[in-house]
Amino acid sequence: MSVDDDKSGAITPKELSRALVNGDWSAFDLDTVRMLMGLFDTDRSGTIGFQEFVGLWKYIADWQKVFRHFDRDNSGSIDGAELAAAMRQFGFDLSPSLLSLLEQKYSSLPTTYGAPGGITFDRFLRCCVMVKTLTESFQRYDIKRTGWIQIDYEGFMKLVLSAP
Fold first, then answer.
1. What architecture does CATH give domain 13-161?
2. How far from 142 is each of 87, 100, 125, CA to CA, in Å?
3. CA–CA distance, 23 with 66 (Å, rounded to integer)
4. How far is 123 from 46, CA to CA, in rounded Å?
5. Angle of helix 121-141 relative to helix 153-161, nearest 10 degrees?
6. Which residues are CB-neighbours of 111 under 8 A, at least 6 positions away?
7. DSSP code string of 31-89
């Protein structure tokens, strides 16, 4: 593996961070690297072996296709309208205020007059995984499928802190 700088046979978070770049050659956000390590370090060794890396690489390639599909203007980032379209297509019926919060939270490009500059690929991936994870967690509590849950403080904290 050319990503394996120290030739140990496994990739550390630091090596993975150096290997992953967005379409504009900016480095992946460290939180996204940590999320990917958490998803693909299946043996919980703290590193990613060859087979784990193969899975991670395919996952990233698949997400790049999704990103390009929704980046309608080919700007290299996802704007608010593109994010809304992606969430709708993924089956998440989010209100405009939630979409705005997501856009603000995951926007990584410079802003002009307070408007988010866009969401880079790595942050789009993390945003989508977070929405999916929180939705699935909510649905586990929403046994009657009413869109309402009753949860105590500790349950709420576990739900939120387990999200990527």
1. Orthogonal Bundle (1.10)
2. 21, 25, 26
3. 13
4. 22
5. 150
6. 117
7. HHHHHHHHHH-TT-SSSB-HHHHHHHHHHHHHHHHHHHHH-TT-SSSB-HHHHHHHHHH
- Read off the pLDDT of residues 37-93 as tens digits, 9 standing for 90 and up: 988 998 889 889 888 988 999 999 999 999 999 999 998 899 999 999 999 999 999
Whether the Cβ atoms of residue 38 and residue 164 lie closer than 8 Å to each other: yes
Domain ranges of the chain: 13-161
Q: What is the pLDDT of residues 83-135, one digit of tens each?
A: 999 999 999 999 999 999 999 999 875 545 544 468 999 999 999 999 999 99
- Are residues 29 and 126 in contact, defined by beta-carbon separation less than 8 angstroms? yes
